Amino acid sequence: MSITALEESVPIRGLEGVVAADTTISFVDGVHGRLLYQGYDIHDIAEEMTYAETVFLLWRGRLPSLAERDAFRSKLVAEMRLPSQVVEMLRLTPPNSHPMAVLRTAVSMLANFDPDVENLSPEANWRKARRLLAQVPTIIADLHRIRSGLPLLSPDPDFDVPGNFLYMLRGSSPTTLERRAMEVLMVLLADHELNASTFTARVIASTLSDMHSAISGALGALKGSLHGGANQRVMEMILDISDVGTVQAYIAGMLENRKRIMGFGHRVYRTEDPRTRHLRKFSELLCESRNQVHLYEISRRIEQAVREAKGIYPNVDFYSATVQHALGIPPEYFTAVFAASRTAGWIAHIMEQYADNRLIRPDSHYIGEMSLPFLPIEERTA
Ligand code: COA
Questions:
Q1: pLDDT higher than 90, residue 168
Q2: 252 CB under 6 A from ligand 1?
Q3: Who contacts 75 (Cβ-Cβ below 8 Å, separation ≥6)?
Q4: Is the entire prediction scored with pTM above 0.90?
Q5: CB 340 within 8 A of CB 233
């Protein structure tokens, strides 16, 4: 870049409003609160479609037939087992390391056992895609059982991936309501346009690095509290409040101290996130079924208090917290569950990037010195 161009370049903080890719995978209309996957409305998808059907749509760009959906579902469930060395690694991690840190390491380690890892042909990439999507939930379930001193379970072919995740995590068969709630959660979290982790995955794929590297990088981006890490902190806040009567004062106190309320606000949505409606419904149904209605009521009251004070809406993390809690998932695993769901979208974007690739390499605005006199080391003072 020339010096003149360099002086004129102005960085766009947070890349807000910068268009960095063409995509057909998902579309977010933040003004009207719309979300589409491959052209289909998220409300139709959340109400009508299964998890396997949704992943097929995201990956292939069209709705599957019944036979295609069922074959895809069976293939995914058949890929859920982990290499024994990866399970051994899970056992070796310190019990206090964050599940997202373990998941990031496990996905990176899986690459070493994947026969297709360095083969970037579309056929090999789809094989890796299925394996990764199926193995990530198993890593989370196995880690939880190892840390709880419980035996590991094999996937049950009668359940799909979300049902198997719950079964392998908890050791008991999920109810119909629980299976549907887990499925809808994973469907709603599966993709969301060019968010920070998806962009990270696309940047890595654009160097023609492998799919496991791109997913490992995306996991690192999702781990942060401004992205996927918010859901755990939402649940910690709800449990900390514990009483509906104290919500107003608790939220007012946080805002007075200029603290951010986790699970609220969004870079793109200026109205309610369309995914909230479905998660709010399952939060209510599940909390009722577990005799934990107070947690749902606290959530509703927080929503009201933040809306009144700041005029902002809950994002996808807010009700996903009570949904996961009522499903028996410990809060420290919430972000990892988000990752298991978002792996579907990351893979769709990685494949889209590979299919029409150009190395992603933006510029920076240099604001440092330009002509400092060089001093030999002997002449420098500390
Ligand atoms: N709690 C309190 N105030 C919030 C807020 C929150 N969660 N989110 C945004 N705001 C306020 C900001 O303080 C700011 O107000 P001000 O103009 O009076 O200073 C205004 O809303 C705009 O915030 P800004 O940080 O510019 O929005 P952003 O687009 O950069 O941030 C998030 C988007 C998601 C990072 C932000 O809303 C946030 O930190 N949310 C909490 C974390 C979270 O839930 N993340 C999950 C995202 S899906």
A1: yes
A2: no
A3: 130
A4: yes
A5: no
Q: Is 381 helix (H, G, I), strand (E, B) or coil?
A: coil
Residue 365 catalytic?
A: no
- The answer to whether the Cα torsion of 242, 282, 252, 266 is positive or negative is positive
Other beta carbons less than 10 A from residue 378's beta carbon: 5
Report the separation in Å between the CA atom of 266 and the middle of ligand 1, taken as the mean of its atom positions: 6
Residue 264 bridge partners (DSSP)? 314
Contacts of residue 130, defined as CB under 8 A and 6 or more positions apart, other chains included, come to: 75, 76, 79
pLDDT, position 8: 64
Residues paired with residue 36 on neighbouring β-strands, in sequence order: 27, 41
Q: 27 - beta bridge partners?
A: 36
Q: Report d(CA 215, CA 101) in Å as an integer.
A: 13
Distance from residue 231's CA to the centre of ligand 1 (Å): 14
Q: pLDDT averaged over the chain?
A: 95
Confidence at residue 9, expressed as pLDDT on a 0 to 100 scale:
77
Q: What is the pLDDT of residues 229-239, one digit of tens each?
A: 889 999 999 99
